[in-house]
Amino acid sequence: MPQPFSQNNHQLKKRISVLVFLKGTTAPLVLYVENPLEFYEELSQILKLNSPAVRLIEKNTLGPVKKVCIQSTQICAIAIQEEQYM
């Protein structure tokens, strides 16, 4: 006899992504990286400097986007997102 679906039968996992909001776009880049909190802090420090000099940020990622390259002057906001999955 098949067992009914129950969330107790499946272990929910959590993953954290870094959302990068770019100037002139409506949707953020959703990036899954090895250490999301460290990457968030790196981007946060760049935003705090508010330097007019362009810095190129290149990162290998783990999700559907495999590698990203962003100009620091194009970032307007960043966020951390936690999501559950099975």
Output the keywords.
1 helix; 5 strands; about 90 residues; alpha+beta; 3-stranded antiparallel sheet; two-stranded antiparallel sheet; elongated
What can you tell me about this protein's structure?
By secondary structure, the chain is α+β, with helices and mostly antiparallel strands. Helices cover 16% and strands 40% of the residues. It has one helix and five strands; from the N terminus they run ββαβββ. The protein has one helix at residues 36-49, and strands spanning 13-22, 29-31, 56-60, 67-71, 75-85. The strands form two sheets. The chain has a three-stranded antiparallel sheet, covered by helices on one side. A two-stranded antiparallel sheet has the order 3-4. The protein is elongated and about 50 Å long. The mean pLDDT is 91.
- End-to-end CA span: 23 Å
User: What is the number of helical segments per DSSP (H or I, 4+ residues)?
Assistant: 1
Low-confidence stretches at least 5 residues in length (pLDDT < 50)?
none
Q: Give a count of the beta strands, DSSP E runs of length 2 or more.
A: 5
Characterize the overall form. Answer: elongated
Tell me about the biggest sheet?
A: 3 strands, antiparallel
Average pLDDT number: 91
The class by helix and strand makeup works out as alpha+beta
Order of helices and strands: EEHEEE
Q: Describe the strand arrangement of the main beta sheet, using strand numbers.
A: 2-1-5
Query: How much helix is in the residues?
Result: 10-25%
Strand content: 35-45%
- As a whole number of angstroms, the C-alpha radius of gyration is 17 Å
Give the oligomeric state of the chains in this entry, treating copies of one chain as homo and distinct chains as hetero: single chain
